[in-house]
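PROTOCOL LOG
Step 1. Enter all chains and additional molecules of the complex.
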Amino acid sequence: MKENDSFFGQVYEVVKLIPYGRVTSYGAIANYLGSKGSARMVGWAMNASLSSVVAIPAHRVVNRNGVLTGKHYFGSPDIMQQLLENEGINVESDKIMNFEKYFWDPVKEL
DNA sequence: TTGCTGACCGACG
DNA sequence: CCGTCGGCCAGCA
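Step 2. Run joint prediction.
Step 3. Record the structure below.
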């Protein structure tokens, strides 16, 4: 797995491990990787994942507020919300309702 | 190689 | 409440 060699690869691993109907935050992933301050890299990795041939459920990754920050990067601002709602997650005004309930923390789960 | 930017987060004034 | 800055790592001109 060459992907796992880089910081990005570790992000991919975690994001792909996110179970159906769950969401996590950039900071949580960064914290799991051992670099809390590198939360920006997580988002950057997501951007790279869009070009990646590997399917990455980036729509399950949101910011600490539960807001769909990168929704615009999915091609259309509605795609990310539609995907989340399709998994049974309520999204309103670009933010996840009951975010705490759907929140999946890799540090605690893994 | 250097410098700027980026889907974040927390702290400071 | 709002604006600004630092920190983390990687990609690109």
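Step 4. Note key features.
Residues 30 and 36 of chain A are 5 Å apart (CA to CA).
The mean pLDDT of chain A is 92.
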